[in-house]
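worker-3 :: picked Enoyl-CoA hydratase family protein
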Amino acid sequence: MGINRHSESTGITVVTVDYPPVNAIPTAGWFDIADTIREAGRDKETRVVVLRAENRGFNAGVDIKEIQSKPGHQALIDANHGCFEAFAAVYDCPVPVIAVVQGFCLGGGIGLVGNADVVIASDDATFGLPEVDRGALGAATHLSRLVPQHLMRALFYTASTITAQQLHHFGSVYQVVPRAELDAAAMEVAKNIAAKDGRVIRAAKRALNGIDTQDVHRSYRYEQGFTFELNLAGVADEIRARFDDDLAARKAEQ
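worker-3 :: tokens ->
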């Protein structure tokens, strides 16, 4: 359990996220993702990083239970710092990062995928930000890199999800394949990139980040400020409590 890194073949580093059963990532896990991707990027032999996950879905976001179990706001601050570092590590990685998504990609998962260079998804994959339903904000910066502006707003306000097929239509998901073929499809793209001259690939990554019209670090940090405000005002606690009550009621009815 945790974050694992291995070399699949020449030039390809695979980073696997494994926090069963749903990959709700604890605070330390976000920092581990950041550290592992940065280590991979510093390895001059690496030409592409494949970011994948085990378990039912790619990412269920922050481990809310961990935050709620600790008094005060320090756990929230730590989780937000961890997310910021993980998202930044993907974006700033000196080589392309391929995000490989199965099942669900929620909350912080959108931050990872939105900052990746290439996204490959299984045909059962869905993407969304449930933040509004949890009394939080964040990662609209990254969702806006996956869908047009007005759709992003509708998805954010309603906490709705969008399918891999829909994202493929917008061009933000490169390929949609059956889950059983997901890793093979990702490796095929990774091998294509890894076959290039590593010096050119690293220069290309710097160039593409340099011409990006959005400062993802600044805009995400701005969003985080409103999450802190909602928590300080007690609004987030009220909403999470209602959510927990509704969840308990649904379980009791089953």
